[in-house]
Amino acid sequence: MSNGNEKRLPDDGELFAMVYGAAEVGRDARPASGGAGVPSSDDGMPGADAVAGEDNALSGEVIPAPAGPAEVEARAPRVIRQRGTGEPLRVLPEWATSWDVFLPAMRRHTAYLASWTAHHGLRLPFDYAPKFLGRSMVGLAVCTRGLVRWVLDSDQKATRKLLVEGVRGTAEYRALRKEYREQVRARLAGLTAGGVLLGVAGVTLYGALGPDGFQLAAAGAGAAALTAFGIVGTRKVDKPIASEHSTKVPALTVDVVTDALMRLELSGQRGEVKRGNAEIKVLRIFPATGGTEIHVDLPAGATAADVVKSKDKLAGALRRPIDCVWPEGNPKAHPSRLNLYIADKALSERGVVPFKYRRRGVTNVFEEFEIGHDQRGRGVSVSLMYNNGLVGGLPGMGKTFVLRVFMVGAALDPRTELHIHELKGTGDLLPFEPIAHVCRSGDDPDDIAALLTDLKGIQAEMRRRAKIIRTLPRSVVTESKVTDELAAVGNPHGFKPLMLVIDESQLAFNDPTHGKEITALVEDIERRGRALAIMVWLATQRPNKDAIPTSISALISLRLCLRVGDQTTNDMVLGTSMYQAGHRATEFSGEDKGVALLAGEKSDPQLVRGAYIDGATTDQIVERARAHREELGLLTGAAAGEEPADVDHSTILDHLLAVWPENDPDWPNGKVWSDELAARLAEHKPALYDGWTGPQVNAAVKNHGIEAKGVKHKDAGGIPRNRAGLTRTDLAAAAADEAALPEFDTLARPDESEED
Ligand SMILES: Nc1ncnc2c1ncn2[C@@H]1O[C@H](COP(=O)(O)OP(=O)(O)OP(=O)(O)O)[C@@H](O)[C@H]1O
């Protein structure tokens, strides 16, 4: 035992305490007899700390000691348990349990087998057979040469030469020569015997089989010999007879896909991403309809969205056209799971997508219906109800066709009332006339005024519905909106789904006379009509803020972007930052007609190639829709032969002047409170002004350059008040100014001159 003063080397525990702190090993350390306050080991010896404390004392900050072994042991590894460990194993392969996998695979293999048979079948008689015959001759020559060399023992020629060297003329030389001649003679005899045996076998066979059978056997033997010589000859030539299958693109193997993904430098650091289990992991490569599906787990830190952003680079690395490469995320798995679809053919090379309901079937606007196919050939469906829509794209890329798909979808629900305003003036949507409540084509002043009137009517209908919905019991209106049940045929409230379509809507919003009013009305209808079964669809070539005012664009939930020219337009149709996120309708080619990105249906925009409905098909569908409506007694408006509502050119100024006599005895100074005017308007034209307030009147007249002013007047109780009101002379002057405006046709169109 030590006495405490003796110097000694610290043991392991003490060394640990020196490094990691006394707390872990000497929790119960007490002062040693050798010095006050100096910790010692249990046996009373001054510990290592004592040495450090006295002689080598360090000054500085005390920091918490790192964990000692006990603590390290206590800390369990922090693993978040994931699905997978206890997940049941797949019993059958996926192709045996899923038609979606099995059928495409079968189709692909059958197609390949058919093409293989046709390719080689055609070449067999004209290319492969003559080639093989030639090779048989080569084989025959090779075999004959080999036989001659065997008989003459040519392989040993050099050895024999060496042996006879120097012994020429001797007995040994003669013995060697004799031995060689006998060997050649014996081999020749063997060969002759073989030939004779063959001859005897032939004669026997002839006797047994008769001439026909012998001929057959001889032909078989000849063919076998030819084949054998052919094989020998082919080996000699060392070149395959069949033409090799050459492809322009590399096959999609794990290595090719991994290499292509590595080129994207997903982790942001060159060389950081490695192939193999730890980083890029190609989980499955399997055939899908019209292409190949690849599922990949990306390196930690990289997401599928990163790949979507670099789609062009990926397509380049895979040596495929950009519209054959479709990366997307799989949110159900995790953000780093990439589902990559590689199409065999570019979208523009595939046939048009047929419309599912072109021959039969009805739709329900409250449910989804198929509008086209995605890049994988799967149906893409949308629900029209509770959505407002926008279709944007360069001229000639298929806006009208896409719009037509949605309209046909609505038309096939016999309840839907169609209000169509095609301002382009080419009559693209006139085929809907036989079923439409309103159907106009053109942007003449009359057409714009008709649109305004129609919008006012829809707004009034919207108010009527809102009022009824408000008053209906909760048991009937469960969600404060028009439901399928409330819109059912025979519903006493008449909540028919209503679809308003404005093609080339920029012409309406920019109209110098009614543009502002139309904008306000469309905004109001979009805002409040959605829940009341009123759907607004707009289409435009260039959806900038003039073509679709921001207030309206913000209310659009379904957006279809056909090919556009630049990032700004792309984002205007699809939404902010969509281009940045890799959703780029700018990448479509001029051949991608009817191909669009659809935003709003799913969390990410999806690609859709709209169904192709030409004029003749539209006519057939409309005819069917009309017959159905007639049967149910649901034809209304123009389609029912009702006189179109008078085109009303009047504005709020005319309506105010009508309800405000020039010398109003109650308001002698020519000024009236706006509240009072709102009440008079509501009485005069309830369809337009029911529920209006003073501020609404002020806002409406502001569009005509009139400002509300303070008007002093006595209220009902006879107390003088100062409230916002209008001056009649202002109204009369503004109305006169507008009447004196030049004809609509001669006005400059800012948007058109801009586009020109
Ligand atoms: N889904 C589709 N599939 C195949 N081709 C289509 C599709 N949609 C449109 N097209 C083709 O594109 C052409 C132009 O379509 P559409 O008239 O709808 O273009 P647009 O964008 O409305 O043109 P504009 O802006 O000049 O009115 C059509 O004639 C049709 O041949």
TrEMBL record:
Lineage: superkingdom: Bacteria
Region Disordered, residue ranges: 28-47
Domain annotation FtsK: ranges: 377-571
UniProt cross-references to SUPFAM superfamilies, sorted A to Z: P-loop containing nucleoside triphosphate hydrolases
Residues annotated as transmembrane: 188-208
Protein's organism: Myceligenerans crystallogenes
Protein name according to UniProt: FtsK/SpoIIIE domain-containing protein
Protein residues bound to ATP: 393-400
Listed InterPro entries: FtsK/SpoIIIE/SftA (IPR050206), FtsK_dom (IPR002543), P-loop_NTPase (IPR027417)
Keywords: ATP-binding, Membrane, Nucleotide-binding, Transmembrane, Transmembrane helix
